[in-house]
Amino acid sequence: MTATERLSFAGxxxxxxxxxxxxxxxxxxxxxSIADSASIDAxxxxxxxxxxxxxxxxxxxxxxxxxxxxxxxxxxxxxxAIVQVREVWSNNGRERxxxxxxxxxxxxxxxxxxxxxxxxxxxxxxxxxxxxxxAGANPSATERVPAGSVYLDGLPGGTTELNWxxxxxxxxxxxxxxxxxxxxxxxxxxxxxxxxxxxxVSEAAPAPVRVVEPASGIAARxxxxxxxxxxxxxxxxxxVRVVLGAGITGGASTPPASITxxxxxxxxDGTGEIPIEVLQPMAGHGAGVVILATRTRTIRVGTxxxxxxxxxxxxxGLANVE
Length: 322
Fold this sequence. Notes:
This protein is mainly beta. It has one domain (3-321). It has four helices and 19 strands. The chain has helices spanning 3-10, 13-20, 52-62, 276-279, and strands spanning 79-90, 95-107, 117-122, 125-131, 142-144, 150-153, 160-161, 163-165, 169-173, 184-189, 199-204, 209-213, 221-222, 228-234, 239-248, 257-266, 271-274, 285-301, 304-321. The strands form three sheets. Strands 1, 2, 3, 4, 5, 8, 9, 13, 15, 16, 18 and 19 form a twelve-stranded mixed sheet that branches. A four-stranded antiparallel sheet has the order 7-6-10-11, with no helix packed on it. A three-stranded antiparallel sheet has the order 12-14-17. A hairpin with a 4-residue loop joins strand 1 and strand 2. The longest helix has 11 residues, at 52-62. The radius of gyration is 19 Å and the shape is globular. The protein starts with a helix and ends with a strand. Mean pLDDT is 74; it is low at 1-65.
């Protein structure tokens, strides 16, 4: 497992690394337009569509991969797949473009995450903290495997085949808008004798969501002394996910750490609250924030698991946690 794989698989340091290197630029607002406030820093990735490695790194950087919560239910020797189709911001927040990835891992060991990581919950939030410079996944716990040819159906462009990149998985940048909401998106694979068997999984695309609080979509400052509230409209039966990632600077006797927070709220609620105990460990640091509308479908193929995650990025930016 490469360093990039360890970061994305652990679901923590990759996001924090993006936060640390985030340059000041225009931000994206809750309805997808460009913010006019110079105080908002956009978390954006210019994807190198002609370079599989650069594109894979972009996938790793934007946010943690979903589906890792299912790993523990996969027997050693079996495969878990994480398939994502997303609308993301590119070109410094000026364009919304879809992309897709499919990663297939065979579980080789009982312990998947490294010993430096621990996971806790608070309210509707799952918090993962990894201590040390190389915290993350156990590098010998998994191996990537092929799944034959992987196809994506249901988007405006018609059937699309994802590109296989050895060491990274299946990747594809797509053209045009991914969906309006409600379309059936299907990912299917022909299967591979040495890897993942044939499968097909479908889910309806998430409906549009507009963030109304904070008014800009992403707050430039988040107080840690009170719960942080997000309000939105739309979303239907989807989940609104708020992701925060922060890199914590270490001291003479304290190693550096990374914190990744995933908070899932029912879209029909129209509001979500991130508890104080989640925010306080990030106080005094910058945190990357991404808000998405998501739908997830997990199927079992024999002893293997496939998780399909459809994501519509609503807003992204950099906030100071105070």
